[in-house]
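Hi everyone, sorry if this is the wrong subforum. Our group has a chain we'd like a structural model of before ordering constructs, and none of us has done structure prediction before. Sequence below.
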Amino acid sequence: MAEIACPSCGEEERLEGSRREGSVEIACLACGHRWERDTRRRCGLCGSEDLRYTPEPLWERGRGEQRTPAGRRDAWACNACGGRDVTSAAPRPG
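Answer:
Right subforum, don't worry. Here is the predicted structure as tokens:
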């Protein structure tokens, strides 16, 4: 099942979105229904909005056994259930 589906007819493919002052309006091209999408971050494990920003380093191989930081990836942790990377497609339990 898709992440977003029309609440009126269940269409998952023929959807169109546009930004409107801090929110996203979705229109179903199949039935014409329009609705506003909730864009607040939520925990993928428990649904809580009580999240904290926890950037994770990206590493690459250095010389020998050394690892060198190569960048940073934005990640969110849940204060309610202790989950890590909870806004990604594969949240990890705490």
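For your construct planning: The radius of gyration is 18 Å. The chain has a mean pLDDT of 88.
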